[in-house]
């Protein structure tokens, strides 16, 4: 039996190329975790055996409670000072050296590490849309040395599981095409996907992202459950 009050939250990452469905599935997983989470019953707390109680939580309390169960995060986090520099680069309003951009993406993770650690330790599960694998795949796709790319992320918290949403970039293009951001180009995405697949380790679950949204969602929560990541 698991106990939300003593157990740390799970660190779940979604990775993949653009338009593979990461954001959709990450949001659906968070919603699933929040809905399926059961409040400890009053009885189990040793109160009023045999009596009935009504749940009179206000909407605001329910929201706070949901955020305590699971939260959705995303990298790059474009809201920080570093994130704003990254955003300008991706939107082509600012040019930066490839090495500098790589280090900014990495620093954007580092600046969140204390917060992430504390949230996990408080028992909240984090579902994170992109992480250090994206950092390596997209920078190495520009022919930066792969070991140099990996080095700035050494020491970051390791995810419990990585769902890699695998989709051929040719298929991704058919999904309404890419936007206008710097990396949203077919040849570049193909290069990044190859590098992603070389980064696969034992924490990875590679999903065929051509499946429907409900099919993928089911595979994802079942896999999370099998891996004991759901409280
Ligand atoms: N990206 C994302 C990187 O190049 N390095 C990183 O470390 C991360 C987290 O940023 F093309 C790339 C991947 C993508 C772009 O990401 C913006 P979103 O998920 O589309 O916002
Ligand atoms: Mg994008």
TrEMBL record:
<dbReference type="GO" id="GO:0006227">
    <property type="term" value="P:dUDP biosynthetic process"/>
</dbReference>
<dbReference type="GO" id="GO:0005634">
    <property type="term" value="C:nucleus"/>
</dbReference>
<comment type="pathway">
    <text>Pyrimidine metabolism; dTTP biosynthesis.</text>
</comment>
<keyword id="KW-0808">Transferase</keyword>
<dbReference type="GO" id="GO:0004798">
    <property type="term" value="F:dTMP kinase activity"/>
</dbReference>
<dbReference type="InterPro" id="IPR027417">
    <property type="entry name" value="P-loop_NTPase"/>
</dbReference>
<keyword id="KW-0418">Kinase</keyword>
<dbReference type="Pfam" id="PF02223">
    <property type="entry name" value="Thymidylate_kin"/>
</dbReference>
<dbReference type="GO" id="GO:0005524">
    <property type="term" value="F:ATP binding"/>
</dbReference>
<dbReference type="GO" id="GO:0005829">
    <property type="term" value="C:cytosol"/>
</dbReference>
<dbReference type="InterPro" id="IPR039430">
    <property type="entry name" value="Thymidylate_kin-like_dom"/>
</dbReference>
<dbReference type="InterPro" id="IPR018094">
    <property type="entry name" value="Thymidylate_kinase"/>
</dbReference>
<dbReference type="GO" id="GO:0004550">
    <property type="term" value="F:nucleoside diphosphate kinase activity"/>
</dbReference>
<feature type="domain" description="Thymidylate kinase-like">
    <location>
        <begin position="69"/>
        <end position="220"/>
    </location>
</feature>
<protein>
    <recommendedName>
        <fullName>dTMP kinase</fullName>
        <ecNumber>2.7.4.9</ecNumber>
    </recommendedName>
</protein>
<dbReference type="GO" id="GO:0005739">
    <property type="term" value="C:mitochondrion"/>
</dbReference>
<dbReference type="GO" id="GO:0006233">
    <property type="term" value="P:dTDP biosynthetic process"/>
</dbReference>
<dbReference type="GO" id="GO:0006235">
    <property type="term" value="P:dTTP biosynthetic process"/>
</dbReference>
<keyword id="KW-0067">ATP-binding</keyword>
<dbReference type="InterPro" id="IPR018095">
    <property type="entry name" value="Thymidylate_kin_CS"/>
</dbReference>
<keyword id="KW-0545">Nucleotide biosynthesis</keyword>
<keyword id="KW-0547">Nucleotide-binding</keyword>
<comment type="similarity">
    <text>Belongs to the thymidylate kinase family.</text>
</comment>
């Amino acid at each position: 039996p698991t106990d939300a009050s003593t157990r740390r939250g799970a660190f779940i990452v979604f990775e993949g190329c653009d338009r593979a469905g990461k954001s959709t599935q990450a949001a659906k997983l968070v919603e699933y975790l929040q809905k399926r989470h059961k409040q400890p019953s009053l009885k189990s707390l040793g109160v009023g055996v045999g009596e009935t109680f009504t749940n009179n939580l206000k909407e605001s309390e329910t929201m706070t409670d949901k955020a305590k169960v699971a939260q959705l995060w995303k990298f790059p986090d474009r809201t920080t000072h570093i994130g704003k520099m990254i955003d300008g680069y991706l939107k082509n309003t600012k040019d930066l050296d490839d090495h500098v951009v790589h280090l900014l993406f990495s620093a954007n993770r580092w600046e969140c590490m204390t917060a992430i650690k504390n949230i996990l330790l408080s028992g909240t599960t984090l579902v994170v849309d992109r992480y250090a694998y994206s950092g390596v795949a997209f920078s190495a796709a520009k022919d930066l040395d792969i070991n140099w790319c990996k080095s700035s992320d050494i020491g970051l918290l390791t995810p419990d599981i990585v769902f890699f949403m695998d989709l051929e970039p040719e298929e991704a293009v058919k999904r309404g095409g890419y936007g206008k951001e710097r990396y949203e180009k077919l040849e570049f995405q193909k290069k990044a996907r190859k590098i992603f697949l070389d980064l696969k380790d034992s924490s990875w679950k590679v999903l065929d992202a051509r499946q429907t949204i409900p099919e993928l969602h089911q595979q994802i929560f079942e896999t999370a459950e099998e891996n004991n990541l759901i409280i």
